[in-house]
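Pasting two entries for a bug report.
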Amino acid sequence: MESASVVRAAAAWVGYRPVPLLLTFELTHLCNLACIYCDRHTPMPGEMTHEQIFTALEEFLEMGTRAVSLDGGEPLAHKHVDEIVAWLTARGVSTRMNTHGILVPKKLETIQRLAGVKISRDGPRESHDAARGKGSFDKAIAGTLAARQAGVPSVEFTCTVGRHNAERLDALIDLVEAMGFTVIFQPARNSLFFDTNRDGSAWQANATAHRATFARLERRKRTSKGIANDWSSLRHFRAFPEDQKIPCSAGWIEATMDPEGNLYHCGNVNRCGNVNRDDRSNNVVRLGARTAFERLQRLGCSQCWCARTVEGNYKWGVRLDMMLPPLRR
C-alpha cells in the first residue's frame, strides 16, 4: 500500500476521517446460473448506464479509492465489464473479481488484467453440479485453469458450506491440493440480501452440523496447504448463525455500491442497525459519490459471514487473539 493510503487508513482507524480505499462494486445482479442458495439471478430494474458507472468510479478514485472488488450476480455477464476493468487497471487500481468461472475462457484479455480471481466451487463434481447445474463443474475447472494460465497473480476457490456439500469437503480439499490451488470456506445463508424471509432450510446446515463441519476444517487446516482461510475466519464461523461481535471497518475504509449506484457501508447491511437494502436514498448517481460516502452510517454488526471480510475486520481491530491458531484440545 502506498504511503498516502497508509496515512489515510490510519486517519480512518482513529475515527478522524473515513476514506473509501476499497470499493466493492456489484456490477449487475444478472447471472447465467441459478445456484440453489443464491438469490441474485436477475438484473436490478435501474442498473447504471455506461456514463453513470464511469462518473461514479472517477469520483471514487478522486476520493482515494485504490482497490476495487467486482462482484455480482456474475460480473463477467455485464456488457461493460471489459472496459471497466481496463479503465481501472490503467489507473493503477488493484482490481479483483468474484465469479463462477464459466465465462473466464471467453474473457481472458480482461481476466489477465486482474490482481485476483475468486471462483465459486461447491465441492466435487456431483455436489457442484447439484447446486449449480449439470456441466458447471467442468466449465468452472476450465475457467480456473485458464485464469492461472493467463497469469493472474491470485486464483483461489470459494466454497459456500451447507447441507448440499458438508460431507464432501475433504474430497474438495484433496482435489484443490492436487490442482495446486487453495479454497476458502464460508457458511451458506438464507439470502445474500439479508432482507427477506427466504426459507434456507434446503441448503443451510443446522447449527450443530455447521459447527461440526467447521471444526473438521480447523483440524484439516493444521496439515493442509489447501485451505485458504485465515484462522480468524474459521474461529469466527464457530458461532454461526448466532451473533458474534466483531470489529468493523465498513464505511471507514470501504463501501459497497450496488448496480443501481446505491451506496452502503457494507453489502450485508440488513444485519447492521437500521440500514437495509430497501433504502435506496443514498445513491451516487443522484448525490455524487462523495456526498453518498459522507452520508454512510458507520455501524458495526455481529452478523459478518463473508470469510475475507471477517479476516479484514479482525486485522482492522488488531485482534491478535483471533488471528492465531487455537490451542489444541
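Entry 2 (this is the one that rendered wrong in the viewer):
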Amino acid sequence: MILIFTNKQDTHTDEVIRKLHKKDIEVFRLNSEDLLRKYKINLYIDENGLWNGEITDELGRILNLAKLKVAWLRKPDFDFFGKSAESTEEQFIVSETKAFVNTLYSIPSIKWINDPFIANQAKVKFQQLLLANKYGVKIPKTLITTQPETAKEFFIECGEEVLVKTIYTGNVTINGMNQGIPSRKIGKDDFYKVYKNISLSPTQLQEYIEKAFELRITIIGKKVFAVKIDSQAHEETQIDWRLHTQINPHSIFELPAKIEKFCIDFLEEQKLLYGAMDFIVTPNNEYVFLENNPFGQYLWLEIETKIPLTEEICNLLISYLDA
C-alpha cells in the first residue's frame, strides 16, 4: 500500500490514485484537514521496543504503519478545524496534531517523497541560488535586506529596475480567500516612493532579467521533463506568468545536456526525489535558474502538453514498494 498525504481538493492526488488503481496498487489517502474528524490514530511501543501503528479512515480501511514502505507528501493543509485555531485549547490541539504529523514523518521504515524534513530546508530559495551558482548555472543578482539605503544602492546597481519577490510564500489569506502575491517589476517612479518601507520587513530584490521565454522543469527521480512557457506572448504574464497560467502557450522542450545534468545533480545534492524548477531563457539564449519547489504543481503541464508526469510519479512510488 502507498500513503498519499494531501488535502481534499488536490486534483494531482486524484489522478495518481486513478492510475495506481489501474495498476492494482492499493492507496491510502490521508486528507490533512480531516485528520481529527475522519481518522483514528494509534501508535504503540512496548517495553521491548517493538512497535506498531495504524490509521483508520471513515470507511474502516486500515493503514498499517509498521508495514508501510512509501509515502508521497503531496500538499497537506493544516487547517484542522476548518478555520484558524482561535482558543488556547484549539491552538494546543493544532500543536499536538502537528507533532503527530512530524512523528509520522520521522518513522525510519517509511520512504517519503520528498522527505519532509529535508524538503523543508531545501525549499529555501537563497541556498538554492548558491547551489546553482556552484554548478556554474547563471542566477539573478539578489538582495535580501531591511536597510532602505542598501536597497537603494542595489537598485541603482541594477540600472534602476528590479524585481520584488517574496522570500518564501507567494500566497496570503485575505477574508478567508487564498490569494497569490505576484512578483513585481519596480522602476524608479515607484521605487523611490516606497523604498523606505523596506525597514518594516526583510525584503527580497532581484535584478530584472529580460526573457525570451520561461521553463518549468519537473524532475522525478532521475528523469527530467521540460515545458516551455511563452510568458512574453501576453502582457499579463511578462513579469510573472503564475497568476494567468491558462493563457500562456505551453510546449514540450528539449533541454541542453548541461542543464538537464544540472537538474539531476541539483536534486541529488539536495537529497530530493522530486522537484519543480523555474528557469528564464534570455534573448541571448542564456539559461537563468530562479528556484526549485520540492512540492511544486505539475498537473497543468500534463493537461497542456500530454507530458506523462502522473505516470512517472506512479512509477517512482511503485519502485519503493519492493525496495
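Dev reply: Rendering is fixed now. As a check, the viewer should reflect this: DSSP finds nine helices and 18 strands in the chain.
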